[in-house]
TrEMBL record:
YopX protein domain ranges (all copies): 47-152
Highest classification ranks of the organism: Bacteria, Bacillati, Bacillota, Bacilli, Bacillales
UniProt-listed Pfam families: YopX
The protein's name: Phage uncharacterized protein TIGR01671
Organism: Paenibacillus algorifonticola
Length: 158
């Protein structure tokens, strides 16, 4: 089993780094407060990264086997149309159908996990008739920091 890089972050020079995340709230000796990504040897303060670019691995692969991170932009063919989604990790509140023996027909649920944002909707990965989840049919085409032009049509505010 290969070791999974749990976080990515972009340094001030525009380089991406993958590894473990350390967040310092205050200066500690010669290390300034901020966000740091470890190097391959595990040095925790190897790369200082811009906090707004830090993103976490979702644990889900795309259709090419690449690990998805929050902020990735993916494409998926739906009904003959190519749609773009932004990968996010967070909490979504939904009304869901209750168990038949419950008094109320629906219940409000708070679900935390990976979702795909498209035109203002927060969509959970679904499974097709062959048992393949959406994420394994998607392809990562960029991310929101390096490829903002790919966001057209994704947010619903265009």
């Amino acid at each position: 089993m290969r070791k999974r890089n749990r976080f990515k972050g972009k340094d001030v020079n525009g380089n991406w780094h993958s590894g473990n995340l350390t967040v310092l709230q205050v200066d500690v000796k010669d290390v300034k407060k901020g966000c740091y990504i470890s190097n391959k040897a595990g040095l925790p303060f190897a790369f200082q990264v811009r906090p707004e670019t830090v993103r976490q691995c979702t644990g889900l692969p795309d259709g090419k086997g690449l690990e998805m991170f929050g902020g990735d932009i993916t494409e998926l063919e739906v009904d003959g149309e190519i749609r773009r989604f932004v990968v996010k990790v967070g909490t979504v509140v939904r009304d869901i159908v209750s168990h038949p023996s419950f008094t109320d027909e629906t219940a409000r649920a708070s679900i935390t996990g990976v979702y795909f944002e498209w035109q203002g909707f927060k969509l959970f990965p679904l499974v097709d008739e062959h048992g393949v989840p959406d994420n394994e049919r998607m392809v990562i085409v960029g991310n929101v920091w390096d490829n903002p032009e790919l966001l057209e049509g994704v947010s619903g505010n265009d």
